[in-house]
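User: I'm preparing a small set of examples for a lab meeting where we compare how different chains pack in three dimensions. I only have the primary sequence for this one, and I'd like the structure in token form so I can line it up with the others. Please keep the answer compact; I'll paste it straight into my notes.
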Amino acid sequence: QRPPWPNNVDANWSLKDRDFKYGTFACFDDIQYCLHGCFCADVRQGDTYQLTRVGSYWTFVVMWLAFYSLGCVFGGIISYLWAELQLNTRQAPTQFGFYGSNAIWALWMALQRG
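Assistant: Understood. Below is the structure token output for the 114-residue chain.
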């Protein structure tokens, strides 16, 4: 478990009146963070929001997985309706299920700011 976020950010880490410390592709410098960011978005997000005291780790992990699952359900519903309308199921716009669930996710995230 990480230590809590400091009240005063050290000048070495502060971005006040400065540009980012790391370059565009510096994420590959620490491959563990790179892999967590790419393949474990729920875990990475839960860790970040717990560290900054926005919410608890498990709340964000579970909600991320719930909204991902909701996108799958929405996509399945779209696919079902597409087939019921006897349209070409290979061209069913199932990605709109994820767009819809991500819009709800964005709203939920915005509400977490307080």
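A couple of notes for your slides: Residues 12 and 21 are 9 Å apart (CA to CA). The chain has a mean pLDDT of 85.

User: Perfect, thanks.
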